[in-house]
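A protein record pairs a chain with a discrete description of its three-dimensional fold. The following entry can be read in just this way.
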Amino acid sequence: MKSAVDAFKARKNQQVTKPVWLYSIQYDSVGNNWLRFTDFPTDITFDGETYTKYVIEHDSVQERLDGSARKLGLSIGNADRQIQYYLENYNGFRDAKVEIRLIFYDEVGNPSVVDLNTFFVEDASVNANEARLILSSKFDVFDITLPRRKFYRGYCTHVFKGTGCAYSGVENSCNQTLQRCKELGNVHRFGAFPAIPQKNVYKINVSA
């Protein structure tokens, strides 16, 4: 006969009571576009949004005495290069909002039962296997000096027709890619670094 402790453990380990982590990354604040992932073995629909099963995990969240959250790392699988694509084409997730939710599987239909933490991306790196985001609370992001120099392989950081770009032609738009820069005859002003290797770790945000 099972003891009460054994019965509790069995219940705790059932799928319906397992904790589910849900991750939302607002990679495009202008268009309010999000990436949504879960570490659960299947996709999860919560509060009208679908969270895709993915290789993703975060460090333990700890709090300071003032209640603000410490920085934490978020690791996301990059085997299919999806995250690398978004990092390179959306400003390295610079200051992107990241929401981390904890629910239990048997409460997935109840959006009021959720533990929510909100962070912002301070730094990022990526290699062939994973992307690593360093997250800070909003307090951290707006109250410390962050690195302002950024290096990208395929995304030009210059403002179109600004000082760095210096394009003075008749065209009025640029998607800040190398191909577009070639079309405009302005490659010598391309503000990215195509030589950055794809299969090695490199920094998305680095100090000047």
Remarks:
- The mean pLDDT is 76.
- The longest helix spans residues 4-12.
